[in-house]
Design a protein that fits this description.
Oligomer: single chain
Strand order of the largest sheet: 3-2-4-5-1-12-13
Distance between the termini: 31 Å
CATH topology: Rossmann fold
Radius of gyration: 17 Å
Strand content: 25-35%
Largest sheet: 7 strands, mixed
Length: 277
């Protein structure tokens, strides 16, 4: 599985998760790019680079993300073995990718290993949670989740299900509920901070690993139904892809990039909490 979606803190990434990502990246040459905030503390990049290098023979480089500037992806992203998107500002990243969003998604579905952390995980969805901790002025997540109203936008569409991360650490379950009520996203998957979702972006098969809770949300006929399951405890690093664990209902397959149109990233989500789209 070439898509791994986890919480924001790279220090919490278990060795088996890193091993899977590095194995997929080295199979494509071992060059790994890490998207980080421009001008930010270099320690987070150095930390994740050191952990990736300890997991296998990869060449790690930083891709600084600066407001108003395009992201310096290689001219041919297919020459990368892996891409890590850290917990950067999601709106800035979407603007920096621009028209390259869809080609990048095709490259990932073609085998480029992808590791999302925090915002990097949420942007893997078709209808992606960008930011916000309020809905019609009502708090739906802690202040660290971003100021202002909930904003969703078209993401990479690697999965059809909207992704929420760090649900336990930042009280974001209500934000996931609001996302499925107020946007075209009928499904959402809320992951605890220490849970990693492994996804095959072609088949949609998946497994949830870690020591936390996975919450499956479905907006159905005006009701939001939530089912909780526990992620599969991590074992020592596997040598290959394990069978998908029965962690819950299968995630909808990603479908074509040109799926349902997401919410304008410049506009807050809106709608009544009493009905689903």
């Amino acid at each position: 599985m070439s898509v791994l979606l986890s919480g924001a803190d790279p220090r919490l990434l278990p060795e088996p998760v890193l091993a899977r990502f590095v194995a997929a990246a080295t199979a494509r040459g071992g060059r790994v790019a890490v998207v980080v905030g421009a001008g930010s503390d270099p320690e987070p990049f150095e930390g994740i680079a050191a952990r990736l290098n300890s997991a296998g023979p990869v060449e790690v480089e930083a891709l600084p993300l600066a407001p108003g500037a395009p992201l310096a992806l290689p001219d041919d992203p297919a020459r990368l073995g892996g891409l890590v998107v850290t917990d950067v500002d999601a709106a800035t990243l979407l603007a920096a990718l621009g028209e390259r969003l869809a080609p990048l998604a095709r490259t990932i579905r073609g085998g480029l290993a992808y590791l999302g952390l925090g915002a990097g995980s949420r942007l893997a969805a078709r209808h992606a949670i960008v930011s916000g901790s309020l809905s019609d002025g009502r708090r739906i997540a802690d202040e660290a989740s971003g100021p202002g109203e909930l904003v969703l936008a078209d993401g990479l569409a690697l999965v059809g299900t909207t992704i929420e991360t760090d649900t336990d650490a930042h009280q974001r379950l209500e934000r996931a509920v609001t996302a499925v009520i107020t946007s075209p996203a009928a499904y959402a998957l809320a992951l605890d901070e220490s849970v990693t979702l492994l996804v095959d972006p072609v088949s949609g098969s998946h497994e949830a690993l870690g020591a936390g809770i996975v919450q499956w949300l479905h907006c159905d006929g005006g009701d939001v139904r939530i089912r909780r399951t526990r992620a599969v405890p991590l074992t020592p690093a596997p040598t290959g892809d394990a069978p998908a664990a029965a962690a819950g209902d299968p995630a909808p397959s990603p479908g074509p990039t040109g799926g349902p149109t997401g919410v304008d990233p410049s506009a807050p989500a809106s709608g009544k909490a009493s009905s689903c789209p």
